Amino acid sequence: MTTACRNYDTRLRDLERDVHHLKTAHQRRRFFPALGASPNLIASQLIAIAARAYGVSIIEVRGRTRSTAVAKARYAAIWLIYHHLDLSTKQIGRAFDRDHSTVIHALQTTRRRFDERSGPDREILHDLARQAAGLVEVLRSELNRNE
Question: In the list 26, 31, 34, 53, which could disulfide-bond 95, CB 3.0-4.6 Å?
Answer without folding.
Answer: 31
